[in-house]
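Tutorial handout. Part one gives the primary structure; part two gives the three-dimensional structure as tokens.
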Amino acid sequence: MTVRLGQTMHVNPNYYDEYEKRHSDLPVKFPEMKKALKEAGAHNYSIYLDKKTGTLFAYLEVDDMDKYKAIAEMDACKEWWAYMAPLMDTNPDKSPVTFDLPEVFHLD
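Part two.
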């Protein structure tokens, strides 16, 4: 069963371009991270930026929540978090501060 996820995060205003660049470089510089997401059943993953506030909105679909959550323990993910940490609000483990959004409507 596919689960649709929506989350918000925050990127620091001086780093909007760098944030986008690093995500564009992900397949080349962090292929292990892309592979881990795919293997965990993550798909239709998009991130949007509100340049007025620095709010990021992430949407993705996941086939298996347990496999998706397990990514957080992988070295590839921890390296990605450390790479992105200077650009955004993070937790002590360098994971991005995220706020899960409950789905209130879906048009099939």
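Part three, for discussion. The mean pLDDT is 96. The chain is about 35% helix and 25% strand.
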